[in-house]
Amino acid sequence: MTTSVASKRLFQEYKHLTQDPPDGITAGPISEDDLFIWEALIEGPEGTPYEGGIFPAELKFPKDYPLMPPTMKFLSDLWHPNGGLRSPTLLPCSLLGWTQQCRGWKMWMDRWLT
Question: Which fold has domain 3-113?
Fold first, then answer.
Protein backbone atom coordinates (compact mmCIF):
# COMPACT_ATOMS: atom_id res chain seq x y z
CA MET A 1 0.00 0.00 0.00
CA THR A 2 1.46 3.36 -0.91
CA THR A 3 1.84 6.29 1.39
CA SER A 4 -0.74 8.28 -0.58
CA VAL A 5 -3.37 5.58 0.08
CA ALA A 6 -2.53 5.61 3.80
CA SER A 7 -2.62 9.43 3.84
CA LYS A 8 -6.03 9.48 2.19
CA ARG A 9 -7.33 6.94 4.68
CA LEU A 10 -5.97 8.90 7.66
CA PHE A 11 -7.46 12.12 6.31
CA GLN A 12 -10.86 10.43 5.92
CA GLU A 13 -10.68 9.08 9.46
CA TYR A 14 -9.66 12.47 10.84
CA LYS A 15 -12.57 14.10 9.01
CA HIS A 16 -14.93 11.50 10.47
CA LEU A 17 -13.51 12.08 13.96
CA THR A 18 -14.19 15.80 13.73
CA GLN A 19 -17.76 15.19 12.54
CA ASP A 20 -18.66 12.36 14.95
CA PRO A 21 -16.14 12.26 17.81
CA PRO A 22 -16.33 9.37 20.28
CA ASP A 23 -17.17 10.30 23.86
CA GLY A 24 -14.14 11.10 25.97
CA ILE A 25 -11.61 11.20 23.15
CA THR A 26 -10.05 14.03 21.19
CA ALA A 27 -7.51 13.12 18.55
CA GLY A 28 -5.91 14.37 15.39
CA PRO A 29 -2.65 14.99 13.56
CA ILE A 30 -0.06 17.00 15.46
CA SER A 31 0.81 18.85 12.26
CA GLU A 32 -1.00 19.33 8.96
CA ASP A 33 2.31 18.42 7.31
CA ASP A 34 2.39 14.88 8.74
CA LEU A 35 -0.79 12.81 8.98
CA PHE A 36 1.14 9.85 10.40
CA ILE A 37 1.71 11.26 13.91
CA TRP A 38 -1.35 12.11 16.00
CA GLU A 39 -1.97 13.33 19.51
CA ALA A 40 -4.90 12.15 21.57
CA LEU A 41 -6.50 13.14 24.86
CA ILE A 42 -8.39 10.31 26.52
CA GLU A 43 -10.70 10.90 29.47
CA GLY A 44 -10.63 8.30 32.21
CA PRO A 45 -13.83 6.21 32.07
CA GLU A 46 -16.45 6.74 34.77
CA GLY A 47 -16.49 4.22 37.56
CA THR A 48 -12.80 3.37 37.21
CA PRO A 49 -9.74 4.51 39.14
CA TYR A 50 -8.93 6.65 36.06
CA GLU A 51 -12.19 8.64 36.30
CA GLY A 52 -11.59 12.38 36.11
CA GLY A 53 -8.17 11.99 34.55
CA ILE A 54 -7.08 13.24 31.16
CA PHE A 55 -4.42 11.05 29.58
CA PRO A 56 -2.40 12.39 26.66
CA ALA A 57 -1.11 9.91 24.11
CA GLU A 58 0.78 9.89 20.84
CA LEU A 59 -0.20 7.64 17.95
CA LYS A 60 2.18 6.76 15.14
CA PHE A 61 0.68 5.26 12.01
CA PRO A 62 2.81 3.09 9.73
CA LYS A 63 3.13 3.94 6.04
CA ASP A 64 1.14 0.81 5.18
CA TYR A 65 -1.82 1.77 7.39
CA PRO A 66 -4.56 0.38 7.64
CA LEU A 67 -3.00 -3.00 6.89
CA MET A 68 -0.74 -2.58 9.90
CA PRO A 69 -1.85 -1.04 13.22
CA PRO A 70 -0.58 2.19 14.74
CA THR A 71 1.42 2.28 17.95
CA MET A 72 0.19 4.32 20.89
CA LYS A 73 2.32 5.83 23.62
CA PHE A 74 0.81 7.35 26.74
CA LEU A 75 2.73 10.53 27.51
CA SER A 76 2.04 10.65 31.23
CA ASP A 77 2.70 8.24 34.08
CA LEU A 78 -0.11 5.73 34.60
CA TRP A 79 -0.97 3.37 37.40
CA HIS A 80 -0.78 -0.10 35.91
CA PRO A 81 -3.38 -2.70 37.01
CA ASN A 82 -0.58 -5.19 37.76
CA GLY A 83 0.73 -2.74 40.33
CA GLY A 84 3.07 0.16 40.23
CA LEU A 85 3.44 3.45 38.48
CA ARG A 86 4.54 3.13 34.88
CA SER A 87 6.35 5.80 32.90
CA PRO A 88 5.12 6.58 29.40
CA THR A 89 4.37 3.26 27.79
CA LEU A 90 4.37 2.30 24.14
CA LEU A 91 1.52 -0.05 23.27
CA PRO A 92 1.20 -1.89 19.99
CA CYS A 93 -2.43 -1.52 19.06
CA SER A 94 -2.63 -5.26 18.47
CA LEU A 95 -2.72 -5.56 22.28
CA LEU A 96 -5.76 -3.31 22.32
CA GLY A 97 -7.86 -5.43 19.98
CA TRP A 98 -6.53 -4.50 16.54
CA THR A 99 -7.35 -7.17 13.96
CA GLN A 100 -7.71 -7.31 10.21
CA GLN A 101 -11.49 -7.12 10.76
CA CYS A 102 -11.04 -4.08 13.00
CA ARG A 103 -9.32 -1.57 10.78
CA GLY A 104 -10.15 2.04 11.37
CA TRP A 105 -10.10 4.52 14.17
CA LYS A 106 -13.71 4.31 15.35
CA MET A 107 -13.79 0.52 15.54
CA TRP A 108 -10.40 0.45 17.21
CA MET A 109 -11.38 2.99 19.86
CA ASP A 110 -14.74 1.28 20.45
CA ARG A 111 -12.91 -1.98 21.18
CA TRP A 112 -10.33 -0.29 23.38
CA LEU A 113 -12.88 1.53 25.52
CA THR A 114 -15.20 -1.42 26.13
Answer: Ubiquitin Conjugating Enzyme (3.10.110)
From CA 20, how far away is CA 106, in angstroms rounded? 9
Q: Is 51 helix (H, G, I), strand (E, B) or coil?
A: coil
pTM: 0.71
Cα separations in angstroms, 110 against 7, 96, 102 = 22, 10, 10
Per-residue pLDDT at 67 exceeds 70: yes
| Residue 107 dihedral angles phi and psi, to the nearest 5° | -65, -40
Domain boundaries defined on the chain: 3-113
d(CA 8, CA 110): 22
Q: CA-CA distance, 106 to 13, in Å (whole number)?
A: 8
